[in-house]
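FAQ: What does the model actually see?

It sees only this:
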Amino acid sequence: MSELKEKIKLSVLVTGGAGFVGSNLIAELVKDKSLKIHSLDNYFTGKEENHIEGALYIKGDCQEINSCIDFIPDVIFHFGEYSRVSTSFEDLKKVWDYNIKGTHKVVEFCRKHKCKLIYSASSTKFADNGNNKNESPYAFFKSQNTDLIKNYNKWFNLDYAICYFYNVYGSRQIKTGKYATVIGIFEEQYKNNQPLTVVKPGYQTRDFTHIEDIIRGLVLLMKRGSGDGYCFGTGKSYQMLEVANLFSDNFTLIDSRVGERFESFIDLRKSYELGWKPKNNLENYIKNFKENLK
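And it is asked to produce this:
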């Protein structure tokens, strides 16, 4: 019986599996020996150093999923997209290629092979009373993709779950370069005794979610999630100046960026119904980070 169970494995594909969220998800999924885990990544921001033992890695673009993937996954976690707001204006072709052409190929692959699709949409569309979805190429295309996936469910009965992340931080976050996360940037600046760079005006608010909480939510979505509206956040917002002050009072204001949102809306009810609640908070994380540097 145990030998039979070992032979019958659920096949999971993680696009962007060498990236921040994807690699952390794979690290959790490989613990379950009933799962066979593959990653598809073009290594735009993913790194080989994020590879997890026990997973199989395929180098390729989501636009080429039909030629790269020669098996039929039961579940596809789709993270293989462009994921920054302010730089999406200068990287418009990449955003189009990754977030429109690539995602359509993934959605169509799921339709054709009857895979369950778990899609990480963008919480930017909820920002500023729902008026932010047209404020950047990133926000616009991500919002369009949620409509595409829901229509594929209506037209073709696509099995899907859509979730929304709120400023994820933690292990394997990008800390340098123009695609770095804000907490990663602050960590590097604090560690190097540099002033923390806070985007003007500084009182824009954000919810921050630890990667461990995100991963627990994604695993639950794989098991029993269905439909749209799974928001993974804490429900607590911080002004960016507050976040900087959790690190240090040594900060400087830098010019505001196009597409910058001032606040976000979060509805945690559907995630709570899934059986998910956040266990981590930003204050403790930053406190532990600072203490570990001593």
